[in-house]
Design a protein that fits this description.
heterotrimer; A mainly alpha (100); B mainly alpha (172); C mainly alpha (481); A: 100 residues; C: 481 residues; mainly alpha; 2 strands; 75% helix
């Protein structure tokens, strides 16, 4: 029997790692993976809380989050492919045709 | 220390280590593979928390579909390794600040909740039976009918969007 | 368990979906040169949806439907009508856009994002709210990156997606903590559970910050505004116009409902929002001053306008809520008019630089007049809608004793007058260099003419006959929760 707060702590640590990844990495693919990690951390918190409250609502929320994540990844990767095709580089620092 | 706690600790170490591996790998393929491991570890947590349906969805949707798509794109683009470029200083500090705030908040959460509530995960609760699957199905199609229908629109739009974004322009 | 009321509650959404499906089925059968008709179909369909909803789907007493997922009330209904109107205007603007106009997909994506906004405005449950926000965002990511052979557009799409995905993950974490504290995702019970539960003001403060990140991005409030100028400049202009109006209004709709429902008892959030509003107004206006590109100027000005509207949220009263609703209505009409005029101009000249607007009033007097109405209304001059909206917002602040905030708002409006009039100076006073303006007319196509006339009349009506509009805003604010 594990106290629920351990799960919440773990989820916060994972969320933080994801957030740091978003801020310090420059490869858009890895930034995107870090976002997925953040979503997973939130999901873990949801399921832990659902288990704590003994209700299904949290689990169903996670089910919907997964659907959204899949849709978002499909669109995001399509954009990355398109940017890469047009310039053969996907470094965020080089995305500077918009500045001012 | 109970056996549950030992299991939790081992898995937690795996989850954090793979997350850090994802963060620190130079090669995007390694990052993706670390993330798959991380998602698998989280799926086991879901089982421990009495959510088998979510655990299975996690493996099929995240590890099976999303990460495969990531790997596919990485290899399609040949983007395994990108020259590391220097991080903007402001962003580094922002990351540090965010990390401190989140960890502080978590510690506060841990300390304050621990004494007050002391609830535990219940792997053996009713949630972990066949009944829970039935309950999830019922909830999805009765209480959560509208969100469920909206996801179908969302997926249709994402499909149209992905096709629009990867089409070839006719004649430029 | 199922009643006709449930279907009435989502009638606008059902009509939008039907229209989208018709569009998907019909469009491939049209010849390439007729594809522009998809725009007329979308416009007509949206107008029909607006009229049908106004006639048949007016809410009675507020009630929750679909197992507590949606709230069927005037507040949601009023916002839905605003979104349908903005989408109809945008579909007209899209028709003569080189890349968007002849593609059925672009109209489908517009309809989908409008559908998401309608759901955002009436969501009464965190699950529904999250899905609605994403249904709004994902089509907008695609629309921003729609011009594939334009580097700036795909980059704008990707930037928008990246910021959007990160902030929605943060928002989701906030939702999960809310669920953890209360054990419910329903907004109705959430507020009561938070108020009745043990005192966790420190934790709730953290949750409020997380939610503010997510919603601050949607309304492009400082410090989450970085994406706005880049995305507005890179995205196709009709999409930028839609992003800066309807999408922002949807963010406000959620912000008002969520905060009033979940945290009525927590005194901390109005003061946080007061700081955010001050920063948003000031930084938006100061950064708008040196801009030379009109699209970027409008982007910064739209950031500043989010700040003014936030004043009404901070006021935390019924008048405050009504003032926000009215402000958004006036802002949608005004900003769409401004973006429409810029589009009509740059479609012919291929430039959004302010200095290229020299002599516009001689090249096209009507377009010049539209610019005049739009920019004076943005600056908050009578007799246009922007004036009344600003007065009501500041009145709401003064009514609650927020004198400092009202004064900051007024000072900011004065700064803003400078750069709005600067644009009009080019339009009305300056001449084209050594050219005869009559030789360079700017013809307006029919869709632009219709949209600009309707919007300009709307802006003037909102500024003169504001009584009925304000009554409706009041009605919406009454029924919030």
């Amino acid at each position: 029997m594990v106290d629920i707060s351990y799960y919440i702590l773990l989820s916060a640590v994972l969320f933080t790692i994801g957030a740091v990844g978003v801020l310090v990495r420059r490869n858009p693919l890895i930034i995107f993976m870090s976002v997925e990690l953040m979503l997973n951390a939130a999901n873990l918190a949801f399921v832990s809380f659902a288990s704590m409250h003994g209700s299904l609502d949290g689990q169903i929320f996670v089910f919907f989050v997964m659907t959204v994540a899949a849709a978002e990844v499909a669109v995001g990767l399509a954009l990355i492919v398109q940017i890469f095709k047009s310039r053969h580089s996907i470094n965020v620092d080089e995305m500077n045709s918009l500045k001012g | 220390m109970s056996i549950d706690l030992i299991l939790f600790l081992i898995l937690a170490v795996v989850a954090v280590a793979t997350a850090l591996g994802m963060l620190l790998s130079k090669n995007a393929v390694y990052s993706a593979l670390f993330l798959v491991l991380n998602f698998a570890a989280i799926a086991v947590f879901y089982l421990l928390l009495g959510a088998p349906f979510i655990a299975i969805s996690q493996v099929t949707v995240y590890a099976g579909a999303i990460m495969v798509l990531f790997l596919f794109v990485i290899m399609l683009l040949g983007a395994e390794t990108l020259a590391p470029s220097k991080v903007l200083r402001g962003q580094g500090w922002a990351a540090f600040g965010l990390a401190v705030v989140l960890v502080a908040e978590t510690v506060y959460l841990l300390v304050s909740r621990h004494a007050a509530v002391g609830v535990i995960a219940r792997p053996d609760a009713f949630l972990n039976t066949m009944d829970s699957l039935r309950e999830i199905g019922k909830a999805l199609f009765i209480q959560y009918l509208l969100p469920f229908e909206v996801t179908s629109i969302l997926l249709l739009v994402a499909m149209v969007g992905a096709i629009v974004l990867t089409r070839r322009e006719k004649g430029g | 368990m199922y009643t006709p009321t449930m279907l009435l509650a989502i009638l606008p959404e059902i009509l939008l979906l039907t229209l989208g499906v018709i569009l998907l089925v019909v469009e491939p059968f049209w010849k390439a040169e007729n594809r522009r008709n998809a725009g007329w179909l979308t416009f007509g369909g949206l107008l029909a949806a607006l009229l049908i909803s106004l006639l048949f789907a007016r809410p009675a007493d507020p009630q929750t439907v679909f197992g507590g997922m949606l709230r069927y009330d005037w507040y949601g209904f009023f916002f839905k009508m605003m979104f349908l109107f903005a989408a109809a205007a945008t579909s007209l603007f899209m028709m003569d856009h080189e890349k968007l106009g002849r593609r059925g997909e672009s109209y489908l994506l517009l309809l989908a994002t409008t559908l998401g906004m309608c759901l955002m405005a009436s969501s009464a449950d965190l699950v529904m709210l999250y899905l609605a926000i994403e249904t709004t965002s994902i089509p907008l990511y695609v629309l921003s990156g729609f011009m594939l052979d334009d580097k700036a557009s795909t980059e704008a799409g990707f930037k928008y997606l990246l910021y959007g995905a990160v902030t929605s993950a943060i928002l989701l974490y906030g939702f999960s903590l809310l669920f953890g504290f209360t054990g419910t995702t329903n907004l109705d019970t959430l507020g009561n559970a938070l108020a009745a539960g043990p005192n966790m003001s420190g934790l709730v403060f953290g949750v409020i910050l997380l939610l503010l990140v997510g919603l601050g991005f949607k309304i492009s409030a400082v410090p989450f505004h970085f994406w706005a100028p880049d995305v507005y400049q890179g995205a196709p202009t009709p999409v930028a116009g839609f992003l800066s109006t309807a999408s922002k209004a949807a963010g406000f709709a959620v912000l008002l409902r969520l905060f009033f429902a979940a945290f009525p008892g927590f005194a901390s959030w109005p003061s946080i929002l007061a700081v955010v509003a001050t920063l948003t107004m000031t930084i938006g206006n100061l950064l708008a001053l040196p801009q030379t590109n009109l699209k970027r100027l409008l982007a910064y000005s739209s950031i500043a306008h989010a700040g003014y509207a936030l004043i009404g949220v901070v006021a935390f009263s019924e008048l405050g809520r009504a003032s926000v609703v009215f402000y958004l209505l006036a802002y949608i009409a005004t900003n769409l008019l401004a973006f429409g005029a810029v589009m009509a101009f740059s479609r012919i000249t291929g430039s959004d630089d302010i200095k290229d607007f020299s002599g516009l009033s001689r090249r096209s007097p009507w377009l010049g007049l539209a610019m005049l109405a739009a920019f004076l209304s943005l600056a908050g001059m009578p007799p246009f809608g922007g004036f009344v909206a600003k007065v009501i917002v500041f009145a709401a602040a003064v009514d609650k004793g927020l004198y400092v905030l009202a004064i900051i708002g007024i000072l900011n409006s004065i700064i803003a007058v400078y750069y709005y009039l600067n644009v009009l100076k080019f339009v009305y006073l300056y001449r084209m260099d050594g050219e005869n303006e009559e030789a360079h007319p700017i013809p307006l196509t029919r869709p632009y003419a219709i949209a600009l006339v309707v919007l300009a009349v709307g802006v003037v009506l909102l500024g003169t006959l504001f009584g009925p509009w304000f009554d409706w805003s009041n009605l919406a604010a009454l029924n919030l929760f």
